[in-house]
Amino acid sequence: MEASQETSVSTIDFSAFITALTSSITTAQVLQVLASVVGVGMGFFLLWLGVHKAVNAFTSAVATGRIRL
User: Is the pTM value of this prediction over 0.85?
Assistant: First the structure.
């Protein structure tokens, strides 16, 4: 058995892909997408808080017999 075996490593040239990507996407578009994601995320967060409060209020009302908001 020989201890020094040669392995060939192939490289992939991404320069054409990077050039096409950087020429078609602008900073304004990236910021617009980030702002949209943050806006939708805030909406889902507020929805989650509302549902959580409603579930807790319902559970408390069933357990104690009183409705509190």
Answer: no
